[in-house]
Design goal:
- With 237 residues, this protein is α/β, with parallel strands linked by helices.
- The chain has two domains: 151 residues, Rossmann fold (3-Layer(aba) Sandwich), CATH 3.40.50.300; 74 residues, no CATH class.
Length: 237
């Protein structure tokens, strides 16, 4: 789906992250790890084609279109206080493909119901978004992202600031999405506790950045590597 060779990204002529050589296959679950400021969010902007490479190449599969990507970032205070209903927010994931059509189709409404069922939030569909708990709000926004995603879901610190138990439950749902739907997932994390949790093991590959690429390979090899052991704090044998 995505193939990166000698790739570098940055802003205003200054490279932020360099030397990236990795690939993402259909059905992969890629964990992008690293400390704050290591270039992870810059890479995400590049994968979303919001910025162009400064060096190297990034090639997408010929049958992959940009509007087949769903994106979920960290939740801001503004998003938390959004005065809309849950169903309305989930359906808004289709806006990128509607062009000038004023109404949601029956098929889109059915798909939205399916995503809410997958995320186990059908009981919330008539609720106001800002009345929900933090974990419930993340599920709603994840369902919205899934409506936008046909082939790829990109998550940039999606569960930052949540209680570890809630985060673990949301990781379970990501694993469910990846395995049951075949959705390709790229997830950024800098939280050691989150990356080391059992739920993060649902990732199939890891890419570790520190202004450059320190590791790319399977999660099994990552846990055994010096880079992985240092980042994960020796949690895994």
């Amino acid at each position: 789906m995505i193939d990166c060779k000698n790739l570098s990204f940055g802003y205003d002529g200054q490279i932020i992250v360099r030397g990236l050589n990795f690939s993402v296959e259909a059905g992969d679950f890629l964990l992008v790890a690293g400390e704050n400021g290591s270039g992870k969010s810059t890479l995400v902007k590049g994968l979303l084609r919001l910025i162009n490479p400064m060096e190297g190449t990034i090639n997408f599969s010929p049958d992959f279109r940009q509007n087949q990507t769903g994106y979920l970032s960290q939740q801001t205070a503004a998003k938390q206080d959004f005065p809309a209903g849950v169903t309305e927010i989930v359906l808004s994931g289709f806006l990128g493909t509607k062009r000038f059509l004023p109404f949601y189709s029956h098929s889109e409404k059915q798909k939205a119901e399916e995503k809410m069922r997958l995320l186990e939030i059908t009981g919330l569909k008539d609720r106001c978004f800002r009345e929900l708990s933090g974990g419930q709000q993340r599920r709603v926004l994840l369902a919205r992202s899934l409506c936008a995603a046909e082939k790829l879901l990109v998550l940039d610190e999606p569960f930052a600031g949540l209680d570890p138990l809630i985060s673990a439950e949301l990781y379970r749902l990501l694993e469910k999405i990846n395995k049951e739907t075949g959705m390709t997932i790229i997830m950024v994390s800098h939280e050691i506790e989150a990356a080391a949790s059992r739920r993060a093991e649902c990732a199939t590959k890891a890419l570790h950045l520190q202004k450059q690429q320190l590791f790319f390979g399977s999660m099994e090899d990552y846990r055994k590597s010096d880079t992985g052991r240092k980042f994960l704090g020796g949690v895994f044998p």
